Amino acid sequence: MDQVQSNSPGNISIKLISDVLFIQVDDNFNGTELVKIYDINGKCILEYKAHPGINYCELNVSTLAKGNYFLSIDSENRLRNKRFVKN
């Protein structure tokens, strides 16, 4: 399972099951959001453009090593972040 910590306002729910990161937001994506995963050193290691009209996405994180990561959702008017641990 995962450990999650919120770093900014706005609801983001994430669950890490096996090698899939399930992400749900409190409102629908409008198609401008970029979902990014950063390693502990701040290097962007995965980037995904969200599909408009839905409030969730699934990311394959099988290539990530065990460790701490940061999920960032960058939209036109806000930035939302969460920390998670891949065990």
Helix content: under 10%
Number of helices: 0
Structural category:
mainly beta
Radius of gyration: 12 Å
CATH fold node name: Immunoglobulin-like
Portion in strands: over 45%
> Could you name the CATH class?
Mainly Beta
Report the order of strands and helices: EEEEEEEE
Count of distinct structural domains? 1
Based on CA inertia axes, which overall geometry fits? globular
CATH architecture: Sandwich
Mean pLDDT: 86
- Order of strands across the main sheet: 1-8-7-4-5
Low-confidence stretches: 1-9
Question: How many E strands?
Answer: 8
Query: In this structure, how is the largest beta sheet organized?
Result: 5 strands, antiparallel
C-alpha termini separation: 7 Å
Short description:
With 87 residues, this protein is mainly beta. It has strands at 4-6, 12-17, 20-25, 34-39, 44-49, 56-60, 67-74, 79-86.
Structure commentary:
The chain is mainly beta and 87 residues long. The chain has a single domain (4-86), classed as Immunoglobulin-like (Sandwich), CATH 2.60.40. The chain has no helices and 8 strands. The chain has strands spanning 4-6, 12-17, 20-25, 34-39, 44-49, 56-60, 67-74, 79-86. It has a 5-stranded antiparallel beta sheet with strand order 1-8-7-4-5, with no helix packed on it. Strands 2-3-6 form a 3-stranded antiparallel beta sheet, with no helix packed on it. The chain is globular. 17% of the residues are buried. Residues 1-9 have low confidence and may be disordered.
